[in-house]
Design goal:
Chains A, B: This is Citramalate synthase. Chains A, B: Pathway: Amino-acid biosynthesis; L-isoleucine biosynthesis; 2-oxobutanoate from pyruvate: step 1/3. Chains A, B: It catalyses: pyruvate + acetyl-CoA + H2O = (3R)-citramalate + CoA + H(+). Chains A, B: Its EC number is 2.3.3.21. 2 copies of one chain form a homodimer. By secondary structure, the first copy, chain A, is an alpha/beta fold. Chain A has 3 domains: about 5-260, Aldolase class I (TIM Barrel, Alpha-Beta Barrel); about 295-370, no CATH class; about 395-450, Double Stranded RNA Binding Domain (2-Layer Sandwich). Helix content of chain A is about 40%, strand content about 20%. In chain A, strands 1-2-3-4-5-6-7-8 form an 8-stranded parallel barrel, surrounded by 9 helices. In chain A, strands 11-12-13 form a 3-stranded antiparallel sheet, covered by helices on one side. The first copy, chain A, is elongated and about 85 Å long.
């Protein structure tokens, strides 16, 4: 029977080498739990010999009730010319209490003499002794052959001698590392194939994405006989990152018929990818393959009607299989089928013969002509749609505002706003780091006492784009605002020749959208929506 | 002699299908110019038959003085059952005045009968007629074989029959499209190889990144005989994007010995990648392969000295070859060569041992830490450099301003500005369509009578980007302003937590830069620059 391909995740170790990625012990424990649920076989938790903080993780990881994943520690072979028993790095691996360890060693002769500054013979001894020591202490041992592909290309015999020393010492797996990330898929295939002929234990692969080839290289290695794949979630890692397990897993399972997790686990992939982005405080890229928000997004009217009829001919896999979903974007090319699909998605029942559909399409086109672009502002689009069919969400209306920005030494901005809220006239003042920030502050102050819900949400991104160059600061501007309550995010849009006006529309929509979604939580006497417009207490 | 591999860029067409990517005609013209300088062979400008706005681009692109790139139009084969002469889509391609066109047609039988709802025979006729018609009208024709790989796998004979119809009709190139992005590298290699045996014209490749394999697939296609590669800059495109030319180009040139651009052009790759991110208002991903800020970043630790001694053993390519740079934590050397290169380019003679070089590097690092990024703001960078070596360009200084934005019915903005110009205190007021526009008006009014030159220039674009999400409207913002005198354009930058302050810095730099460049045209009694700072009439 063919040996099963095993997944080895190093998000918690190599992933945190990525610029801007930093995980607390709590985060790491949560991620380990999630990876285990997803069916990952090995979870590399840290490098106890280099980072003493990692000990805490290993200590607490023992309390995790993992179903199958093996927690592993990372480390290096012993230092030159000392006994393994006296090597603090190997000692700490044993102290961490793990059942498996990955230790890296040099396989490129140049690195032995230049970086390690030792002899080629001593390096072979270091590999042999270190692997043997850990094996004698009962650990499963993965030998990470650092710079293996470069070493192989420069001095093949020495690279092979190095990994064979690990095999002879009892290593369970030889993970060949493309440490600099510069190897092409065809070279990976050829070299992995040769290695599998030379050794009789499991061969593994560890790729980096410097050439945007890490996923392809990992798949080629599996085709050539590798049965152990190292990578990180979302491709985090030093420089351009490590091989992205989020893409490798579905490629293996759905494209290459190499099962690595169960179907149910695969359906958790999108959720896990996003969860880890969130814990790592990274904005999930919309265009992330497989799990991104745009990965199964369709644009264009004519195309959309066909997608709805035969999705399999426009999608390389069914998004449900990895827990993602199809989205239809409303864009300039939008037609009736886009609109109907969108409405259905939002739970709004619309008959295609209803005259309101034609009116809505007309309205969308008109707004797009003015510079609105709803594909990145789905919350504004939902409001437009719902108001188009007669629902009303006027929780407050603006009477007027004055914003004063001054440069007199410092730059300061102050604002005075007058709103109508539930029949009351409310006047407030606030300051901020610019006109929009000040306006946002004043608005919250004014409505917060009527709708405390507003304090749960905040703006998480603000983008301004000038639509038609040529008029400089007098051009039409499009403002996109992203808001969040810490759990979900939503985007709204405003367009005007006046950037403050555009910002106001986007701000207003953002708050109205949140109130609409949380309608049931507005206090009873505050509910003014879902009733005919005439009944709204405005004046 | 082996046929040269040609690069076909579709950033301006397929790239803008990416969610959140939107380019004005001005942006498109600038990108076309940049791509031409970089040595791209074909630039697909748009789809005139589907998007009438694109006509404007083709009209204006005729005025671009391109060195080698061929501007192409995109379109589809004629509709079923009409004559090519009456097909509005083909007609618009001819109207656009391009010398080359890419038209797509169906090669997957299922799509013919289901999406097009016509017969298999009629589809073949549509392909033949459309290619022939464009050829008869003197165009170079690329046939984009839509869904080719899926079509080939489902019904090989029909897929081949379809592309052969295009060949027979005189097509110059058959671009095989992995439209759904679901094909594996090994399949791409096998199918491309077979096609090159079946046809005698150039075979091309068009990949999508749904499996994170688009770059590998494109390279495999070249290995299998493809000689025309379609992709986008930074991998923009629908869903998970198109094949990323930014990664494909150096892989071909530096790894596979397939020269596609000159060495000098390759050195512009990082700059071009960033420039296009800026115009598309996208945050450049730090971990972007080859051109990202982290792509050659080495974290501190034991291997830093080894990296400096033998960078080739820790880096898969020399970053200078693609215009990127090594970043090392401890390195004071980082940035020096760039700075000296830039200075030389601007005609400023700087000796690398001059202590001012160290000061300048320190200053640039400090500004970058605050959020400045000079890639897309070379005018501000030149001012920084020149002022750093003691030149002075203080034509006017700001005393204070008040900006009042009101919403009371309409949105209005009025501003009062007080400046010091050539020893005089000048107070003016103006209004505008927003705070920055009003400030711009007032500034011009105030200095126009001292420096009539200001009336020759105007702002042509204005962009705002929030730098660190999470604080919404209170975050640091970066403002980029582009100005023009109708002949040349220049870009300036300002950064602050206050958008008005950031805009002010960019505005001020924009005017100062123009005056500096046109120094010789300032009236004699107005010349206050190029003299020691102490002599400037400020108070």
């Amino acid at each position: 029977m063919e040996e099963q391909v095993k997944l080895y995740d190093t998000t918690l170790r190599d992933g945190t080498q990525g610029e801007g990625i930093s995980l607390s012990v709590e985060d790491k424990l949560k991620i380990a739990k999630k990876l285990d649920q997803l069916g990952i076989h090995y979870i590399e938790g840290g490098w106890p010999g280099s980072n003493p903080k990692d000990m805490n993780f290993f200590e607490r990881a023992k309390e995790l009730q993992l179903e199958q994943a093996v927690i592993t520690a990372f480390g290096s072979t012993r230092r030159p010319n000392i006994e393994t028993e006296r090597d603090p790095n190997l000692q700490r691996i044993l102290d961490s209490g793990v059942k498996a360890a990955a230790i890296f060693g040099k396989t490129w002769d140049f690195h032995v003499t230049e970086a390690l500054q030792t002899t080629l013979e001593e390096n072979i001894a270091m590999i042999y002794d270190s692997v043997r020591y850990l094996k004698e202490n009962g650990l499963e041992v993965i030998f990470d052959a650092e710079h293996f592909f470069d070493g192989y290309k420069h001095h093949r015999d020495y690279a092979l001698e190095a990994i064979k020393a690990a095999e002879k010492a009892g290593a369970d797996c030889l993970a060949l590392c493309d440490t600099n990330g510069g190897t092409l898929p065809s070279e990976i295939a050829e070299i992995v194939k040769h290695v599998t002929e030379e050794v009789s234990i499991t061969v593994g692969i560890h790729c980096h994405n410097d050439c945007e080839l890490a996923v392809a290289n990992s798949l080629e290695a599996v085709k050539a006989g590798a049965r152990h794949i190292q990578g990180t979630f979302n491709g985090y890692g030093e420089r351009s990152g490590n091989a992205n397990l989020v893409s490798i897993i579905p490629n293996l399972q759905l494209k290459m018929n190499v099962p690595v997790v169960s179907d149910e686990q695969l359906q958790q992939l999108t959720n896990a990818s996003k969860y880890i982005h969130e814990l790592a405080n990274q904005t999930p890229p919309n265009n992330q393959p497989f799990t991104g928000k745009s990965a199964f997004a369709h644009k264009g009217g004519m195309h959309v009607s066909a997608v709805l009829k035969h999705p399999e001919t426009y999608e390389h896999i069914q998004p449900e299989k990895i827990g993602n979903e199809r989205r239809v974007l409303v864009s300039e090319l939008s037609g009736q089928s886009n609109l109907l699909f969108k409405a259905k998605e939002l739970g709004i029942s619309l008959d295609k013969n209803d005259p309101v559909v034609k009116e809505l399409i007309q309205k969308v086109k008109e707004m797009e002509h003015r510079g609105y672009q709803y594909e990145a502002a789905e919350a504004s689009f939902e409001l437009l749609l719902r108001e188009g069919i007669g629902e009303s969400y006027k929780y407050f209306t603006l009477d007027h505002f004055n914003i004063l920005t001054q440069k007199d030494g410092d730059f300061t901005t102050e604002v005075l706003v007058k709103l109508n809220v539930q029949g009351d006239s409310v006047v407030t003042a606030a300051e901020g780091n610019g006109p929009v920030n000040a306006l946002d502050h004043a608005l919250r102050k004014a409505i917060g006492e009527y709708y405390p819900l507003v304090n749960e949400m905040y703006l998480s991104d603000y983008k301004v784009r000038v639509l038609d160059g040529g008029d400089g600061t007098a051009s039409t501007v499009r403002v996109l605002i992203e808001s969040t309550n810490g759990k979900t995010t939503w985007s709204t849009i405003g367009v005007s020749t006046n950037v403050i006006e555009a910002s106001w529309y986007a701000l207003e929509d953002s708050i109205r959208y949140y109130f609409m979604k949380e309608e049931h939580r507005l206090e009873k006497n505050n509910v003014v929506a879902f009733i005919p417009e005439a009944g709204v207490k405005n004046h």
